[in-house]
Amino acid sequence: MGFLAFTAAALVVGIVLSLAGLSVWGDVVLAVGTIVALGPASWWVVSALRAGRLGVDAIAVLALVGTLAVREYLAGALIAVMLAGGRALEHYAMRRARRDLTALYERAPRSAHRYDRDGLRRLDVGEVSRGDLLLVPAGEMVPVDGVVSRCAALLDESALTGEALPVDYPVGESVRSGVVNVGPAFDLRATSTAEESAYAGVVRLAGEAEAGSAPVVRVADRFAAWFLPATLVLAGLAWVLSGEAVRAVAVLVVATPCPLLLAAPAAIASGLSRTARRGVVVKGGGALETLGRARTLVLDKTGTLTQGRPEVVDIVAAQGFSAREVLGLAASVDRMSAHVLAAAITQAADQRGAETVVAEGVHEQAGSGTTGSVDGRLVHVGKAPKGLDSAWMAAQRARAALDSAMTVWVSVDGSVAGLILLRDEVRADAARTLRRLRSAGIERVVMLTGDRAEVAESVAAVLGVDRVIAEQTPAQKVAVVREEAERAPTVMVGDGVNDAPALAAAQVGVAMGAHGSAASTQAADVVLTTDRLDRLADAMDVARRTRRIAVESAGIGIGLSVVAMVAAALGAIPPAGGALLQEAIDVAVILNALRALRPGRGTRLHVDAPTDALLHHFDREHATLRPALDLLREAADALDRPSAQALPLVRHVHDVLSSEILPHEQAEEQRLYPALSRLLRDPEATVTMSRAHAEISRLAARLARHVELAGTNGPRPEQIDDLRACLYGLHAVLTLHFAQEEEAYFSLTGRAE
C-alpha cells in the first residue's frame, strides 16, 4: 500500500505543479514517481526469471524506461500508479493462509502417564522409552506406538484411518499413536519413542507434501508467452520505420499490461467474496484459479462422502420382543455409558420415541459391553453373551456383514432380545453433488480411504465413482494424490488428521471444516464451513465462472490494447495520451471483472423460498416416519410366530400406514410435487415418484384387506405368504422411495443443516 500511496501522490503533486505553472518541478516529481516504480517492477521481472518464466511485467519496465528516455514523465507516472494499483489489488486477492500445519503439531501427544517405582507419574512424551509401561486414560490420545497390556482397549482410529467406528484391541495387540481411547483406561507397553511413532510420521508427511507443492502461475503470465514478443516487435518496427523513438515508447505505454494485472485480481477478489457467502473459505486467488480448472476429484470416504459418525440403521428383535422395546432397553443402559456408540443408540431412541427408564447398577466392561438393571431385569448391551448362539443369531451376523454394519447385541436376563445395526451413512447430498461437479467439468472421481475395501465399494456403488482405493495409510494417500495430480489438475477433499498430508499434496486441498480436524483445515486451500458437501460444487461453480470472467476481461483488455498499439505505432497516439487511454481500458476491464460479484447460473438449481420451505417440511416428516418403516419389517418377521401373536402388530402397522404414512404421501402428491414440477420446468419430472405413491397405496389397500379377512385368531394360513410379501414389499418400496426423494429433491435446498 505504501508503493501505491507514493506513486499516486507523485502523480497528483506533479500534475498540480504543472497546472500551477511550475512545469519543471512538476516533471521532476513525475520523474521521481516513475523512477521509484522502476525498482519494484524490475524486481518482479527478476523474480519471474528466477522462477523460470518471463512475465508481462517486463513490458511495464520497458515502458517506464522509455518514458524517462523520451521525457514523457506524465505517461511514466501514470504507468507507475497503474502498476502499484494492480499489485495492491492482486496481493489483496491472493493473500492466503499458506498451508500452515500448526494444528498437526498442536494435536500431537505432549505427555504420557508412566508406571514407575513410586507409582504413576506424568512426564513429557519425549521421555518415553521402548519397554515403558504406560496408562492411557479414557478420552486421551495414545502417546506412542505400543502393545495393549493387562486389559482390552476400545480406540477411535479416525485420526489415522478415517474409520468412524471404534475398534476393539484385545491384550497383546499393537496400536499406533494418534488414536484416541474412547473406552475405559488401559495399559500400554511402549514399542517405540515419540519420534518413531505413527503420528510423528503423519506430521512429517504433511510438511514434506507442503514443501513439494508448486506455486500457481498468474493468468497474466500465461498471456505473456505471446503478448510480450509481439509488443517488442511492433515497438521496434514503429521506431525503425518512423525513425522516432517516441512512437516505440507510445506502443510500450499502451501495451503496459494493466488489463492483465488488474482484471484477474479484480475478478478473483470478487470470486472470493462470492464463495464466502456460500460458506466456503478459499485461502487466496491461486486456490480459486486452480479450482476453476480442476479435472480430477479425490475424495475421502468417512466424514466426506458419509456422515462421519455411526447411526442406527436397523433394529432386529428376537421372538417375544419388539424393535422399539429392544431400542428402549439399550438406550436405558447406554445413557449411563461412556461407550462411543452409546450416543448413537440414545439419539435413535429419542428420535423414534422408544421408552427409556433410569437404569441401576450400570457397569461397563471394556471389550464386552455395558450391563445394568432396567425394571428389575438384567440388560446387557454390547457383544453377545458367551455361550449363546443360534441359527437366528448366525443369520443376523451374516446380514450385518453384508450390510457392512456394526452389531450391538441386547440381551435380557441372559437371553438375546435383539440386535442393533449401526453404520456410517452416505450423505444425502453426496450423489447430487458429484453429478453437479461432473457437469462443472470434473472428469474423474476417485475415492481414497483408509477404510476396508468392502465398505468403500458399497459406498462407491451408490455414488458411481470412477476408482476406489481402500485401506490406504497417510503415506499411500499422498502417493495416490501425487499420481493423480501428474495427470490433471486435482482437488482432494477430506476431513481427518490422516487426510492433512494428502490435502497438502494436492493442487487444491478442500477440508470439511464444520466437523473435520483442525489439521485438515489448516492444511487445506479451501474450507467448507458448513457440514454440506454440496458447498464444494457451489465453490467450483464460482471458481469456473470467476476464471472465465478473468480470462475474458484480460482478453478484452488485450484486444483494446492491441488496437491502441497499432494506432500508437502509426503516430496517432502520443505516450501521455496512450497512458490516459490505457486508464480508460483499465476501467472497462475492471467493471467487466466485477461481474464475478454477481451470482451466476452455475450447476445449482435455484429454489424459491416457498418450495424450499416445503422441502424442509417433508424432509422433517421423513425423519419422524422412519421408525414406521422398521415396523413393517418387524411385522413381516412376526408372521413366523403363531398368527394370534402377529395380529396386533399387523393391525398396528395398518393403523400407522393409514394415519401417518399415506397422509404424508398424499400431501407430497398434492403440495410438493406440483411445486417441484414448476421448479424443474418439467411436468414429467415427478412422474416416477408419483408412480411409487400409487404402488404404496396399492400395497396399503392390500394390507387393509388382509386385516379385514383376518379373524380374532389372526391371519389364516392361506394369507400368510401374501401378507408377508405385502409387508416386505411396502418396506422395500417406502425405503427406496424415501431415499430417492431425499437425494433427488430434499438435497436441492440451500440451507445448512
Automatic annotation (TrEMBL):
It comes from the Bacteria. It is a multi-pass membrane protein. It comes from Nonomuraea phyllanthi. Gene3D superfamilies: Calcium-transporting ATPase, cytoplasmic domain N, Calcium-transporting ATPase, cytoplasmic transduction domain A, HAD superfamily/HAD-like, nmb1532 protein domain like. This is Cadmium-translocating P-type ATPase. Residues 108-205 form the P-type ATPase A domain. Pfam families: E1-E2_ATPase (PF00122), Hemerythrin (PF01814), Hydrolase (PF00702). It is found in: Cell membrane. The chain crosses the membrane at residues 28-46, 73-89, 223-242, 248-268, 554-573. Signal peptide: none annotated. NCBIfam families: ATPase-IB2_Cd, ATPase-IB_hvy, ATPase_P-type. Keywords: ATP-binding, Cell membrane, Hydrolase, Membrane, Metal-binding, Nucleotide-binding, Translocase, Transmembrane, Transmembrane helix. The gene is cadA. PROSITE patterns: ATPASE_E1_E2. GO terms for cellular component: plasma membrane. SUPFAM superfamilies: Calcium ATPase, transduction domain A (SSF81653), Calcium ATPase, transmembrane domain M (SSF81665), HAD-like (SSF56784), Metal cation-transporting ATPase, ATP-binding domain N (SSF81660). Its EC number is 3.6.3.3. Belongs to the cation transport ATPase (P-type) (TC 3.A.3) family. Type IB subfamily.
